[in-house]
Design brief:
Layout: E1 23-27, E2 37-45, E3 49-61, E4 67-82, H1 86-111, H2 118-122
Antiparallel strand pairs: 1-2, 2-3, 3-4
């Protein structure tokens, strides 16, 4: 028998006070056959760096008007940048928003068979 131990973080906090703890974005679908998409962005700021953790996820319908997060769809993304490198930080934030856009469109493309190269594999 072998005993193994793992360290698991149970919390974190920024060393610089921010006016918010996280940023939450939710794309609400207009149509019932399309799932909502959510994103949570958690910035951790020190005196010289910013580390950003973000989670993308889909919602699923549990009851008529009750939507819950589909935990199996979670996708985590993170990045770390020096605060003095403003252009790099802006580029990383833009990249994060582009990944959120791609994530939200991916489910639509799968559901409606719009993924590129799908019919090439079947041929």
């Amino acid at each position: 028998m072998i005993d193994e131990y793992y360290m698991v973080p149970v919390g974190a906090s920024s060393t610089v006070d921010l006016p918010y703890k996280f940023i939450s974005i939710r794309f609400q679908a207009k149509y019932p056959n399309v799932n909502d998409v959510g994103c949570v962005i958690l910035p951790f700021v020190s005196q010289t760096k910013i580390i950003v953790f973000s989670a993308f996820y889909y919602y699923k319908v549990r009851e008529w008007d009750v939507k819950i997060i589909d935990t199996s769809s979670l996708k985590w993304i993170d990045f770390e940048e020096y605060l003095k490198g403003g252009a790099d930080l802006i580029r990383e934030c833009e990249s994060l928003l582009k990944e959120l856009e791609d994530f939200s469109l991916e489910q639509l493309k799968k559901r409606f068979d719009l993924l590129e190269g799908c019919d090439e594999e079947d041929s």
